[in-house]
């Protein structure tokens, strides 16, 4: 198998795990979906820890709104977790789920 072919198959698998793409041939769909859900949960938990202000303000809506955000914004290569969390906050404001803070979020804590 050539390196190019292997790279293409790996990219296909990553799209299935991280971006909701169809399961590649040769993989068990239920296992890929379970792993994709676990990765989304991990990403959500990291965002919750990095941006507790969002979690506090959204309450029970945090999980469903993060899932909606993540479905349309797969984590890109090179994007750090803090950037991803901040982009989620900007998305929430843009979608009308939150009002923009008067001060940057990191200054909101006393």
Beta strands, count: 0
- The string of secondary-structure elements, in order, is HHHHH
Class from secondary-structure proportions = mainly alpha
- Spans with pLDDT under 50 lasting ≥5 residues? none
Mean pLDDT: 90
Biggest sheet statistics? none
Number of helices: 5
What is the rounded distance between the termini?
Answer: 57 Å
What does this structure look like?
It is a single chain. With 110 residues, this protein is mainly alpha-helical. The protein has one domain (3-107). The chain contains five helices and no strands. It has helices at 3-18, 29-50, 52-58, 62-72, 81-94. The N and C termini lie far apart (57 Å).
Characteristics of this structure?
110 residues, mainly alpha, 5 helices, 0% strand, elongated
In brief, what are we looking at here?
Helix content is 64%, strand content 0%. It has five helices and no strands.
Give the helices and strands, then pairings.
Elements lengths: L2 H16 L10 H22 L1 H7 L3 H11 L8 H14 L16
Helix pairs in contact: 2-3, 2-5
